[in-house]
User: Fold this.
Amino acid sequence: MIETIRFRDVSKIYSLKSGDVTALDHVSLSIEEGEFIAIMDSSGSGKSTLLNMMGCLDTPTYGEVFINGQNIGELSDDDLTILRRRHLVSSSSSSFLFRFSRQSRTSDSHSSLMAAQMSAQIGA
Ligand SMILES: Nc1ncnc2c1ncn2[C@@H]1O[C@H](COP(=O)(O)OP(=O)(O)OP(=O)(O)O)[C@@H](O)[C@H]1O
Ligand SMILES: [Mg+2]
Assistant:
């Protein structure tokens, strides 16, 4: 199987006047081509923070996030936008659908063969 999304020892810390908030604490995971996953946990556990990084909307404070082999922490805002356009088929506040292809980006037939899908449901 081909690994399409990988978190390596990822932490996200928000620095507030009142002190630091650790939204993600040393998270490692990997999602392979064709996998469908749901993320469920209590409010404030970091689900949205995790999803924002998968959707290239945010970058980690520590650790590395790889989308299709690219370390998003090393990409410019423009490169992140290109990555989103290339791989993110649809997104909402609670889910993302990705598509990855080893073949030509313009070929729908090849792309559909390499479809990867991820959806995460966020608590009510
Ligand atoms: N922009 C931010 N600035 C400061 N703290 C934040 C920010 N975003 C999230 N947090 C904090 O990070 C932690 C994780 O928040 P997050 O929104 O990722 O949780 P969640 O699991 O999506 O919660 P919910 O189920 O309520 O949507 C919480 O303590 C939250 O208050
Ligand atoms: Mg949330």
Summary: Confidence is low (pLDDT under 50) at residues 103-124. Strands lie at 3-16, 19-32, 62-67, 70-71, 88-91, 95-98, 118-119. The longest helix spans residues 77-87.
